Amino acid sequence: MRRVVVLSLIWGWSFLLIKVALRGMTPAAVAFLRIALGAAVMLVVLRVKRIHLPHDATSWRHFAVMGLAYGALPFTLLAWGEQHITSALTAVVNASTGLFTAVAAAVGLHERLRRPQIVGLVAGISGVAVAAGVSWADLGSSSGAGILAAVAASASYGFSFMYAQRHLSDVQPLVAAAGQLITGAALALPLAVVTTVTDGFGPNGREWLAIVVLGVMGTGVAYVINYQSIAAVGPTRASLVTYLVPIVAVTVGVVFLHEAFRLRLLAGGALVIAGIALVQGRLRHLVLRPPPPLAVVAMALLLVSCAGGGSGPPESAAGSAAGSAAGSAAAGRCGPDTEEQLDPTSVQHLLPGAPEPAYTTDPPTSGAHLPGAAPAGAQDGPVPRPAQLALLEAGGVMVQYKDLATADVRRLRNLGDRDVAVAPNPDLDDAVVATAWRYRLVCGGAGPPALDALEAFIDAHRGNGPG
Length: 467
Description:
Elements: H1 2-11, H2 14-21, H3 27-49, H4 57-81, H5 87-94, H6 97-108, H7 115-132, H8 136-141, H9 144-167, H10 173-199, H11 205-233, H12 235-238, H13 241-256, H14 264-280, H15 293-309, H16 320-325, E1 338-339, E2 377-378, H17 385-393, E3 397-401, H18 406-413, E4 420-424, E5 432-436, E6 439-443, H19 448-461
Parallel strand pairs: 2-4, 3-4
Antiparallel strand pairs: 1-6, 3-5, 5-6
């Protein structure tokens, strides 16, 4: 149980770190670098402990299967998925690993799932959904391809837990982790090279820090703990870490991104713990032990990375963007966010299919809109102005761009979530325009200074619509 807690503390930060790293590199590059860094850590550990890797073909065949199914494939899918759906929804979908693992263990290891265990698995997933605040609206507004990518990653993880128990349970955890990471890096390299050549590679200091911590702690150290967990409690129980990871991820948002605390965190957490107790058969004798010192070390390193790469606390509405922009929209920077005059007919709603009216500003900050048509997340095409207004009235933020490099588009798309829509707009007068209710921010590009200003603008104006 303590290993599960430690892994949840380490992996709970992974979605934030992936989000930061994706600003400067492709999903395939993120996957390769974190695996390669984890492999480097493992090779150092093996050398220090004078442990040798096996030479037989059978062992390396098993390592290659795990390198693909528990490394290269799910890491790439999750990173790609985070470009299309919110981090909260990605974490919730990833919790389905427990279900896929239970099914894989029942088929491959002939483990019998009793009714209480099935109830526990369902309760755990339900608790994660409650804690993250996911609703059907999220599924309707997010990319179906992104959701399928996260589901496919979870299925790959589930298969891997069973495969490791069946074929690698007699291998030392350090050797198994090292072999898997070495083969995983080799398998992830070709796609990383191809996508980097086509889409570019330009991480800054904070993005490098995010990927280093993700590789060293979230991959190297965590994999050793995970193999120990599989050997100690079996694949189904070891996979329960995916229930706790989203709880940690949501808590990180409350503490470090200053998101509002919701009572659903307590309710969802209670369901998660109950689900774990049911699967483990310890509902009446559940004892939570404090995590070992390794958890403290892991958290300290992850806190450092977040302090260097995460969003800071919200500043005032008028001065948040201006401080980092230096009053200029040139060279990828942003001018100060400006308050606009509201249209007196801004409360007017449109019927579906009605012609689009004239707007006093474009992008608009007020005007007639379609109720219930608010977009969310990264959009592949322009968003109609009535739909933009629906988002603004609900307290969301609309970010639009034109004529940007592929890497800059990728950076902007990572800003999208349930309250922020990001979309191309070839009719803009500027490179990047962020719009909130009554306010607008104009940026000359999507470099690091502009991203800082855009994140501050979003923090300051999110949730402030009249609706």
